[in-house]
Amino acid sequence: MFSLQFLSLLSVASALIAAPPESLDKRANNFKYLVSFGDSYSQTGFLITGAKPSTSNPIGNPGFPGYTTTNGNNWLTYLLHPSSSSTLLSYNFAYGGATTDASLVKPYTSTVLSLVDQVTLFESHVAPLPSTANSPSLTSSNTLFAIWIGVNDVGNAWGSSNWSTLSKQIINQYIAQAQKLYNSGARNFLFLTVPPIQKTPLVLAEPASVQSQEGAAVATYNELLKAGVSSFKAKNGGIKTWVYDTTTVFDEAISNPTKYGAKDATCYNADGTTCLWWNNYHPGQAIHKLVSAGVASLVGI
């Protein structure tokens, strides 16, 4: 077993803004806001006490695309379609190094905001959402809620002797946070699975047995998540849920690295573009763009 450590805020360099997809005007869901929670795979450095999102800067603060772990756009900022007629406005509570619940799986430092902490911030500063379509701000119908978390829960805890029990506790707390969002007015939920972190350069440097066991832990977590989402949907009326399986696009890039500008599937570079990986645990821009396109297709945004 080994621990993974992450930086909560990272330097950002200029990046090309992704062009809106050709099918943008054919979106199935007319969402105007995206409220997101997660870890470094999603972080942009947004502070709820700072500038709020606007068409000139859809992430609100800091400057677009924010403090990401790609040296540019991540999956969220690729989704926003800046400067287009359908810019999504983003309230992104994701925090680098986050676990679902710090009392279950400790982050690398106590100052990291867990999913529990992030949802509490949302409840304190944004909730509740009105249901009326005439509201000029976030409503139950015009806002998509997205959660992508778990790489630190699995990465830090898969080797624990009580993983079988702990993984269930993590997912129970995860779904409990979704329930809090529902109680605050959320009705549209996107959940992203943990990608195949056993194929990151960090884990590939470990023995094959570690890779296999961690891969099995990822699969266990994702099956529990899917079951949890199914129960959550059955319990609550008037909601839409989507579960996006990130494995497919990660495997696509890893199987075809040269197609995505990398010399191989294991190199990493802080420029975020010449390798598939930004560092030995975080994907670069090409993989994030694939995730974004997959999400857009699944949800209809």
From TrEMBL:
Gene3D superfamilies xref list: SGNH hydrolase (3.40.50.1110)
Domain of life: Eukaryota
Keyword annotations from UniProtKB, A to Z: Hydrolase, Signal
Leader peptide range in chain numbering: 1-18
Coiled-coil region list: none
Kinase among keywords: no
Gene Ontology terms, MF aspect: hydrolase activity, acting on ester bonds
Protein name: Carbohydrate esterase family 16 protein
Short name of any one Pfam family annotated for the protein: Lipase_GDSL
UniProt-listed PANTHER family: GDSL LIPASE/ACYLHYDROLASE FAMILY PROTEIN (AFU_ORTHOLOGUE AFUA_4G14700), GDSL LIPASE_ACYLHYDROLASE FAMILY PROTEIN (AFU_ORTHOLOGUE AFUA_4G14700)
CDD domains for this protein: fatty_acyltransferase_like
